[in-house]
Amino acid sequence: MTLRLRISPCPNDTFMFDALLNGRIDTGGLHFDVEYRDIEALNRGVQAGDADVSKISCAVLPAVADRYALLDSGAALGRGNGPLLVRRAGDRSPIRRVAVPGVHTTANALMMRLFPRITERTPLLFSQIAAAVERGQLWERPTALPLPLGGIAAKRSLPEAVRRQVETLIRQSIEYAFAHPEASRAYIKEHAQELDDAVIDAHIALFVNDYSLSLGGEGRRAVEALTGIACAFNS
Question: Which residues touch 172 (CB under 8 Å, ≥6 apart)?
Answer without folding.
Answer: 19, 20, 25
